[in-house]
Amino acid sequence: MNSILKSADPTIGCEVARARHFGGPLRRIAASLTVFVAIGLTIAGFSDVVQDLDYEALVRAMRHMPAAAIGWSICATILSFAALVARDVCAVRYVGGRTPLLAPFLAGFCGTALGNAVGFGTLTGAAVRYRIYGAVGIRSRDIARLLLFIAGGFGLGLAGFGGFAGLMEPVPVAHLLGWRPELLRLISAMALSAAVAIVFFGPRGTLRIGAFSIAGPSRMLTAAQLLLAATRLTGAAAALWILLPGAPIDFLTFAAVFSAATALGAVSNLPGGIGVFEAVVLWALKGQASPDSIAAALLTYRGIYFAVPLALSAALLAIFETRLAIGHERSRDDRLVRAAAGLAPRFMGVISFAAGVMLLISGATPTFGHRLAILSMRLPLWIVETSHFLGSLLGLVFLFVARGLFERRDGAWWIALALAIASLGLSLAKGLAYGEAGFLSFLIALLLTTRRQFDRPASMLEQPFTIGWFVAVAVILVAAQLIFFLAFRDVDYTAHDLWWQFEFDAQAPRALRALLGAAVIAIAFGLWELLRPPKGLASPPDAAALAHASRIIDLQGRSESLLAMMGDKSLLFSTSGKAFIMYGKRGRSWLALFDPVGPCEEWTELIRRFIGLADGHGGRAAFYQIRPESLPYYLDAGLTVMKLGEEACVPLTDFSLQGGAKAHLRYALKRGERDGLTFELVPPDRVAFILAALETISSDWLETRRNGEKGFSVAAFEPRYLESQWVALVRQHGVPTSFVTVMTTSSVREASTGLMRHARGTSPYAMEFLFTNLMLQLKELNCRCLSLGMAPLSGIESPPLSSRWNRLGAIIRHYGSPFYNFRGLRLFKDKFNPIWEPRYVAASGTLSPFMALADATTLIGRGFKRPKELSNRE
């Protein structure tokens, strides 16, 4: 699951990237091998223990767990998490940051809760901490140092805590672990001495790992980290020790065992060390108490220390999202609250995955007898059988839907909500499972309150499912089967009629059918993923490809082609290398942006190559925002053409402020001067000096719209890209408040507007003031025309003989105005008396243009992501 979570992580800057990716492929291979070895050792370790477990006795032990023990365990958990929050406070102090107290609380509590549930705690905690601390102004490089400080503190505390416990009780601990007391005493002394030595004599200068550097912490902070890590481990160990039946061993002895189990669980890279941790504890305490009661204590501990904090974190983030939705956030913590609410999809993905695991295990275990008796008097047998079978199938689907939730897909959200509602009814119909129903109700409430965070309009099934995800699903199914055999170990599986027993008390056949159905669905889905046509990859361009594309752009006059320099679109060059197509990929759609760039004689071959590339991967080729004069190229290629809208192009050679039609522009200039507005056209070589001001304006503009950057056909705020463009800047009383980037080729024959942003409180005449001055300046530079961009669905009419698309477009434009200001956008551009030129989309097939439009909308809304290769060069 962690590999999926990491794929959804935001880019966290060059310093963090270096820290996280140090070791490259070797680190990933080592991590994968560690997981598989850990799974193998866990199975081997459990093989002997499972034989001694009795399912009914385990359930009975959990149901009769003393309330006082649960209460004290919760108190110990609170102590442990309080130490975790204090550890983050120290880490913030270490990097010299100043944050509201809410920031380290969210980072420490929520980050640890997510790391415990998903595994690779340091890395998943990094994603949470980067979002939280980045929102309160801590720089990326400082966050990287903060993360290393926390990871080092955990290792230091584990060594000190385990070493102290091993030295205090070497004989019983050595007996439990099967070691010689002398060896354990030596290892414990070395660990404790190393921890103390680091506190008093640790490095205080600057440490370097390749290009990454970190300053050594002070002695006071190092000692605080040791103390807080020890407190955290003490609380965690006490939370489990209190639940053990009759305290079979003293606390110090158990603390040493707990330290060894925690260390092995962390090394295993499994979520929360699950399986490895339990195997070590069960093996170490074998003979000290009943295996059933120890297993019950371990399961209860998992619920208190792992599940409850995760649920509380998700609920807290849902509350933040609700506050944002109703507009009750405080201005001081506005960014922090937004950043915290943005973490909700990750937590919802984890909780949905847990819901799937719960439903699968519920389907593999027997129902309590008295509940089954109640059902037999009120429901027919076929409803109980069907509910049990469908409940397990929906549990399996939950495991796959969780990935879509990680990636904020709205399709995954709708499926998860439907699954949760359906499973809620099935959990009651199959066995009056009130605990399941409560958890599913909690999940439904969280999904409803976090709806706005799932804003990527994307199909659930179009996403790539990695091998790691299928392995995780397979492990869950195998675990469910093992639990099934544990719960029904007395059943005669050689009986031929076992599969066909349909009775209220025939629970083993019912569970067996449910597990088989889930396994068949999982295998079928895996085969479908394996056998369907390869989707192909739209690899981002490297620096050499962008440099080659830049040279081609300079030789022609289409200024909008400079969007290729954003680096977020793939490039396909012609055989001669004189022309290229920029494109993106979404689902089965291969979407080329604009016409090919380069000499027209290269277009036919390049268009056919692109269509063949898409067809070879089972996809559809589409060309987005093409010009009317190039339509014959696409019609000859057999593509279907539809009108998208119209683009506003202002002829600058005839542009002036004379005449009555331009009175409003003359007024905008005069009113802007009275409001203290000044205009400046900044050349590319001077943009770096105003970049910080531009970023402030851009951030404020994004916050007012509660939206992220767009991508594909829309320019985004990307510093390296901005530094290659002209920038039209407006200041109000000397303070930068508005800007527009201007794309021009070296010949400056035509120009196109790119990024347009303005800050809150800017004069309402600022944009008219800006564009009017910009056009006058470009005219002096002998620029022929300025493109103001497209007006979607503009110029699409619905006369009696028009196509279905024209009629549909007219309906969307008419009834969609409350949601998108189609008319207002055109009216603003009409102020400058532009020439409206039609733009089209061409795609293969009759319905493909509609699918291509939907996928293009998704590509634009998915936002800008700078390729890692280019980011690492900075």
Mean pLDDT across residues: 76
Radius of gyration: 31 Å
Straight-line N-to-C gap: 30 Å
- Please provide the count of β strands: 13
Given as residue ranges, the uncertain stretches (5+ residues, pLDDT < 50) are: 1-36, 798-805, 807-822, 868-874
Strand order of the largest sheet: 3-4-5-6-13-7-12-11-10-9-8
Biggest β-sheet description: 11 strands, mixed
By secondary-structure content and strand pairing, the structural class works out as alpha+beta
| Percent of residues in beta strands | 5-15%
Query: What percent of the residues sit in helical stretches (DSSP H or I)?
Result: 55-70%
Task: Indicate the overall shape.
Answer: globular
Number of helices: 33
The total tally of domains equals 4
Topology:
Layout: H1 2-7, H2 13-20, H3 24-50, H4 55-63, H5 67-94, H6 102-118, H7 121-135, H8 140-168, H9 170-177, H10 181-201, E1 206-209, E2 212-215, H11 219-241, H12 251-268, H13 276-284, H14 291-326, H15 334-341, H16 344-364, H17 369-378, H18 381-406, H19 410-431, H20 434-449, H21 467-487, H22 507-531, H23 543-554, E3 570-573, E4 580-586, E5 589-597, H24 603-616, E6 620-626, H25 631-636, E7 640-651, H26 663-674, E8 677-682, H27 691-705, H28 719-722, E9 726-732, E10 735-744, E11 750-758, H29 766-780, E12 785-792, H30 804-815, H31 822-830, E13 835-843, H32 848-862, H33 868-872
Parallel strand pairs: 5-6, 11-12
Antiparallel strand pairs: 1-2, 3-4, 4-5, 6-13, 7-12, 7-13, 8-9, 9-10, 10-11
Helix pairs in contact: 2-8, 3-13, 4-14, 5-6, 5-8, 5-11, 5-14, 6-7, 6-14, 7-8, 7-15, 8-10, 8-11, 8-12, 9-10, 9-12, 10-11, 11-12, 11-14, 12-13, 14-15, 14-16, 16-18, 16-20, 16-21, 18-19, 18-22, 19-20, 21-22, 26-29
